[in-house]
Amino acid sequence: MSDETIANRIEQLVAEEHTLRHREESDRDHEDQFESDQERLRQVEVELDRCWDLLRQRRALRDAGANPDQAHVRDADTVERYWQ
Question: Where do the structural domains in the chain lie, given as residue ranges?
Answer without folding.
Answer: 3-80
